[in-house]
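Example 9 (inverse folding). The structure is encoded as follows.
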């Protein structure tokens, strides 16, 4: 009959009202179900079919949430809170072990949802487990070994950690914070260790590659992690004032030198792109420019550049990064080299009609614009007549085309190829100008003293000693014999040609004994940078004051710091302001001495 309930519905109603709603029975059933679930959580095997039937009964009776779910979630919270506290106190549990345990627990709870729990329990259950095992212990979890995971590049463990932490508002920011602290700690260990200066840039490049890989593999390429890397590396690389900028410039020089056969053109270009990332973090880019310019000059003038295309590529990268003002002098250096090549073509044609020149000397001259190139100390030497006459002809040739200009020769940058005859063979010797001056003396005498060589060449004492050492002490290219033997060159030493000299090559390059870049040279380069900075600071102050007319001290300092490309202490800015006041560019306000006025 339609007005009467179905037998199933009637039976269900009677069962609920007469049996299961009785407090004593309900309590025993609930305790049994919760105890069975707890035993299963402890690793025991339980009758899942029975649990499924009992919980389905709760659902059918519409008491699942009221009777079971609330108690089940309370029990779950208690169990996992106790478990997490115990594991946090246990120092034997490492971070990888802990997060693996959490992942396993979550998988087990998902399995229970599939087997016997109702779908409405899913969200509160998983949130409860995650909160008790992870959310309540975010800092403690990271303290269990986050840095060790990063150090070992444990991609899978870091990825799991990120997934677990991403479920909490403060989770991922905490990972980012720890990630930044790790980068700073590891990076500063590299930068602040002076014994690692030789490998600093390579180590920083490798470390940057490492942290980028971690973000890619474990942190889902999240952009904010790259922001952390940028900020952390910027802090690290500017930790030591000026030194990293110098070492980055020297690293580029090493990679662009002709002796470097480690990279193909494509690999070298990719490497330079990576170096440019480090360069981007440097505040004192003018320090980089000073050292880079000095090394570039040597590569261009001594023919030591591995690839002209690579040089131009690096110049373009610098221009794109810093603008044309930064690279204008560097571009001028390349322009000088190209114009010199064109000039030498014209000069060779001129020599054919010049009666003053005889012999088979080939002369090549680079004419350098002084403002573009590093400063070189002028040095007077005595050239043999055959070389001096060529230079006189070139000087006349050049000044006829460019009247009013002044030429100043720089012998320290010159190099020559000499034809030499020994007892067993003839050789070509690729040498510096200083080496060639010494060797050409032996065209007239077989033996001569150090004093005579010094007087005949006019080479400065320290430079001459290094030159003689390179010619007489190198086992593979010993073209001179020194008496008495010994590394040090002394005033009473005698030198003679090694007539029995042998070498498997026809053209032999005899390297000059390199005087390692001294602290004085580095200081001199840094002083030139500081001098340039003073001009930039003065210009910035005058520019700001010219526009503002009057300005308080603190605002002037703040605006200057915003305009300058390098770090400068406020005390140094104050000195420059005082200097401008002394030179009548500015004056102090009569009403308030902390306010400056521009003098038109």
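The amino acid assigned to each position is listed next.
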């Amino acid at each position: 009959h339609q007005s009467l309930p179905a037998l199933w519905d009637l039976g269900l109603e009677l069962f609920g009202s007469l049996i299961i709603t009785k407090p004593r029975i309900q309590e025993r059933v609930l305790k049994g179900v919760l105890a069975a679930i707890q035993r299963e959580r402890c690793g025991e095997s339980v009758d899942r079919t029975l649990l499924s039937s009992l919980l389905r009964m709760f659902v059918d009776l519409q008491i699942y949430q009221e009777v079971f779910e609330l108690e089940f979630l309370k029990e779950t919270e208690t169990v996992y809170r106790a478990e997490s506290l115990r594991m946090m106190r246990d120092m034997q549990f490492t971070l990888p072990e802990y997060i693996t345990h959490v992942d396993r627990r979550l998988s087990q709870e998902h399995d229970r949802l599939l087997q016997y729990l109702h779908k409405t329990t899913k969200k509160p259950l998983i949130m409860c487990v995650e909160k008790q095992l992870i959310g309540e212990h975010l800092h403690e979890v990271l303290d269990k070994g986050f840095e060790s995971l990063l150090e070992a590049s444990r991609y899978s463990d870091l990825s799991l950690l990120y997934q677990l932490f991403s479920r909490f508002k403060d989770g991922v920011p905490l990972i980012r914070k720890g990630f930044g602290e790790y980068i700073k700690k590891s990076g500063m260990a590299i930068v602040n260790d002076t014994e690692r200066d030789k490998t600093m840039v390579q180590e920083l490049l490798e470390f940057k590659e490492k942290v980028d890989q971690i973000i890619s593999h474990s942190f889902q390429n999240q952009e904010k992690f790259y922001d952390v890397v940028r900020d952390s590396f910027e802090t690290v690389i500017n930790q030591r004032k000026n030194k990293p900028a110098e070492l980055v410039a020297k690293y580029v020089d090493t990679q662009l030198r002709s002796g470097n056969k480690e990279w193909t053109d494509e690999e070298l270009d990719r490497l330079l792109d990576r170096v440019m990332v480090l360069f981007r973090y440097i505040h004192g880019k003018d320090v980089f420019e000073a050292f880079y310019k000095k090394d570039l000059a040597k590569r261009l003038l001594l023919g030591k550049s591995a690839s002209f295309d690579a040089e131009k590529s690096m110049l373009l990268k610098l221009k794109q990064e810093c603008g044309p003002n930064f690279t204008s002098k560097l571009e001028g250096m390349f322009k000088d080299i190209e114009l010199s090549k064109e000039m030498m073509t014209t000069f060779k044609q001129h020599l054919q009609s010049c009666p003053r020149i005889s012999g088979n000397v080939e002369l090549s001259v680079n004419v350098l614009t002084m403002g573009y190139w590093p400063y070189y100390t002028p040095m007077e030497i005595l050239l043999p007549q055959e070389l001096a006459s060529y230079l006189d002809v070139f000087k006349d040739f050049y000044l006829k085309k460019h009247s009013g200009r002044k030429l100043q020769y720089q012998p320290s940058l010159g190099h020559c190829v000499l034809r030499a005859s020994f007892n067993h063979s003839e050789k070509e010797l690729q040498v510096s100008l200083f080496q060639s001056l010494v060797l050409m003396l032996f065209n007239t005498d077989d033996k001569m003293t150090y004093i005579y060589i010094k007087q005949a060449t006019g080479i400065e004492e320290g430079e001459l000693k290094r030159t003689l050492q390179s010619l007489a002490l190198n086992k593979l290219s010993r073209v001179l014999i020194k008496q008495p033997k010994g590394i040090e060159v002394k005033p009473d030493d005698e030198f003679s040609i090694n007539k029995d000299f042998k070498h498997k090559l026809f053209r032999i390059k005899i390297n000059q004994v390199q005087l390692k870049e001294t602290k004085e040279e580095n200081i001199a380069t840094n002083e030139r940078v500081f001098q340039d900075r003073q001009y930039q600071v003065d210009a910035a102050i005058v520019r700001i004051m010219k526009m503002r007319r009057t300005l308080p001290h603190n605002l002037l300092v703040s605006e200057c710091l915003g305009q300058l490309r390098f770090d400068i202490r406020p005390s140094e800015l104050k000195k420059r302001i005082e200097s401008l006041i002394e030179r009548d560019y500015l004056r102090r306000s009569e009403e308030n001495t902390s306010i400056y006025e521009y003098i038109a």
